[in-house]
Amino acid sequence: LTSPLSEKWVSFYSDIDCSPCFKRDCPHKNYRCFEEIRPELIIDEIEGYLDKLSTGLCFDTELPFWKKKAK
Fold this sequence. Notes:
Blueprint: E1 9-13, H1 32-35, H2 39-54, E2 65-69
Parallel strand pairs: 1-2
């Protein structure tokens, strides 16, 4: 696995016991780590990014990265 090439990225993850496992196939066969990351979380992040762009705010004034935890 490789990390993002830019300092301006967002990582979404599920806070479950087996995460992150870095495996392509779930050894538990439940894929909860993916299923808990709801589309609404991604859409909210995109909308926030677009709001910042429309107001002239730039990510250069923010932290270089952050993580979003699925609820």
